[in-house]
Structure formats: C-alpha cells, structure tokens
C-alpha cells in the first residue's frame, strides 16, 4: 500500500517522490536496522551527486526513481526478511525484485534493479551493466569507503549525515554480514565478498583462500613461475621460510618475503628501499668481502642492545639452523628481545632495528 503520510525528508533531500519510492523507503525503514536504512538513503544522495558531476540528467540519461529504488533496497539481504540461503547481495536482489513485482513494476526495470543490488560489491562489473547500476555502486562505495567523496558538492555530506547519522556504518554492516555467514556458511563461499569478511573472523585456516582451493582441487597442479614461491601467511611461516632461504643462500627467496617498499640495511650506512634495491643490494653493498648472504653477528655485549642501534663484531659467519628459531614464535611487543642472550644473536621486532636482513616489513 502506498504511503501517503508526509515525509519531510523527501523534500529536504529532494528525493524522487512517488508512491513506489515512498513504499520502498517505508519498507526498508521497518525491515532493517537504522544503520542500514540510513546508509541506503545516503547512497542514493551520493549516487545522484555523481550523476550530476558526470553531466547526467535524471529522466533522460537515467531513471531517477529506479536509481533510488536500487540504492534504498540494496542491503535488504542483510535484513531478517531477506536472509535466505545465498550470498547477501543475491538474497537482497531477489527480495527487492519480489517487492517491486508485487507493485506492478515492469520486468525490464526489475532486471536493472536486480543487477544493481546483486553486483554492488562487484568492482569492474557493475560499472559495465548500465547507468543506474554503475551510479548505484558509485554512491554505495562513497558511503562505505569514501570513494570519490572529494567530488561531492560542498556541504552535501554534512547535510545528509545530519538527517541520517552514520552510526559506525562500515563496521556495523560488516558485523551483520559476518553474523549471517557464521550461521549459514554457504552464504559466504571463499572467493566472495562475504567470504573474505568471514575469513577475518575465523581461526587461521578455517576458511580456505584461493590457493587452498587449488591444492584441494584434486588435479595435482603444481605452482609454476612466480607463483612457485610460497607466500607466508602467518608469523610462524615467516620464520621457517626465512631460515630456509637464508641457509640456502636464496636471495630471491628472501626477497619474496618482503613487501614492495621494505627497508634493508645490509651494512652500516647503507639503506636500501624497495624489492629491486634489496635484490641488488647484497652483491654491491658488502663492504667486507663476505658472500652476499644475509648475515648474523655474534653479540659482543653479552646480549644487550639499544633499540635501533646496530651491534656487530668483525667475526661474521654464515647463519646456522637455530639462529632464527626465535622467529618461529608469535610476534612480541615492539622492542622485546626475541633471541637468547649470552653471546647468541638477538633480533628485535621493532621499527628501525635490524641485523642483516631487516625483519621490519616481511610480507604476511
């Protein structure tokens, strides 16, 4: 039934005011938590602003009513009513389609709304599915992640937030999606957006990632080329791989453990930044004629060291198994010594401290 009661917000925010848009507004207000309802309305306002920035005109370049419906209904899949057995985006698209169909909306328009809702988390796809679909995703992305927020008209965000407060939307919505996924894991298959969220809330290894799926495929495929390098997923794996590559003299293996902008100090006064510089560094930066391996110093001070200050003696040796065993333990607070004292190597997980290969920014 169409809502005839006055809705001042339609005038304040210049929302498309039709019986259908009022029905959708009222429906979502009652079916979803306030943080989702507020987000859904703001998403339309931001989508319309993006349309204006692109020189698009409502009624000629896009269907303004349909854009509003797509935005306002886009998270209905996170509601109790919309919580089916599919990923929340598809459940929401089906629920919205049923809502629109009951009100006599043409199937062609329903199909556009379905795409906008089902694809609103699908970067690179939504933008190719038509103007309303692309605009809806743009508005939703602005409200969640701040994408293109700098292009909004001055004061617009403040105006809409005064009427529809954020209520910690980004985290509240993420938690709601995870809650659904924990209760129904089939709603969050590993490579979907809900699956990625769910993985962050489960113990390591409980929810597979892409390479886990490949390993379980049963075809016996093995890594080749660049992919042949294993990637550390936990601090324990970093330690084991670091030791393995170090003892093998495998510079490429060691380099593979670092982030693109990692810092490497092979000798006092030599500071290399970036994987390419690190790869070339050991061969050219060694000042004492030693093999271009990552090296470990015996500690002349009986284990004491000042944070960020290198302590070495001239008696270098190639590292042996056990020198880096401490890296196999979970990380400790910055600055805490991880290695044994009494002349044995000591490593610190602290910005600026190092022995040989920096462990400041190993990839995880």
Automatic annotation (TrEMBL):
It holds the Pfam family HD. It comes from Rhodococcus wratislaviensis NBRC 100605. The lineage of its organism: Bacteria, Bacillati, Actinomycetota, Actinomycetes, Mycobacteriales. InterPro entries: HD/PDEase_dom, HD_domain, NTF2-like_dom_sf. This is HD domain-containing protein. Residues 37-125 form the HD domain. Residues 296-306 have a biased composition (Basic residues). Residues 282-345 are annotated as: Disordered. Gene3D superfamilies: 3.10.450.50, Hypothetical protein af1432.
């Amino acid at each position: 039934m169409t809502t005839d009661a006055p809705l001042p917000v339609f005038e304040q925010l210049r929302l498309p005011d039709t019986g259908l848009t009022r029905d959708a507004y009222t429906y979502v207000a009652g079916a979803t938590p306030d943080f989702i309802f507020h987000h859904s309305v703001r998403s339309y306002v931001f989508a319309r602003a993006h349309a204006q920035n692109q020189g698009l005109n409502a009624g000629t370049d896009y269907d303004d009513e349909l854009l509003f419906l797509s935005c306002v209904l886009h998270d209905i899949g996170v509601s109790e009513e919309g919580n089916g057995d599919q990923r929340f985006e598809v459940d929401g698209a089906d629920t919205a389609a049923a809502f629109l169909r009951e009100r006599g909306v043409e199937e062609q328009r329903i199909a556009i709304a379905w795409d906008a809702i089902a694809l609103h988390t699908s970067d690179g796809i939504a933008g190719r599915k038509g103007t309303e679909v692309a605009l809806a995703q743009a508005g939703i992305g602005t409200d969640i992640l701040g994408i293109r927020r700098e292009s909004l008209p001055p004061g617009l965000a403040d105006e809409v937030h005064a009427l529809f407060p954020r209520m910690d939307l980004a985290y509240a919505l993420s938690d709601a999606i995870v809650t659904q996924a924990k209760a129904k894991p089939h709603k969050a298959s590993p490579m979907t957006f809900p699956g990625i969220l769910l993985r962050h809330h489960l113990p390591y290894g409980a929810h597979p990632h892409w390479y886990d799926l490949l390993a379980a495929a049963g075809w016996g495929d093995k890594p080749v080329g660049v992919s042949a390098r294993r990637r550390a997923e936990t601090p324990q794996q970093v330690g084991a791989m670091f030791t393995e590559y170090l003892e093998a003299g495998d510079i490429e293996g060691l380099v593979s453990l670092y982030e693109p902008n990692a810092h490497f100090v092979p000798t006092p006064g030599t500071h290399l930044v970036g994987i390419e510089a690190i790869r070339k560094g050991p061969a050219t930066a060694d000042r004492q004629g030693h093999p271009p391996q990552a090296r470990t110093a015996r500690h002349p001070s009986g284990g004491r060291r000042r944070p960020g200050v290198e302590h070495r003696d001239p008696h270098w040796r190639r590292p042996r198994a056990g020198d880096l065993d401490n890296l196999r333990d979970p990380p400790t607070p910055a600055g805490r010594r991880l290695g044994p004292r009494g002349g044995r190597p000591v490593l610190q997980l602290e910005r600026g401290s190092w022995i040989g290969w920096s462990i400041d920014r190993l990839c995880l």
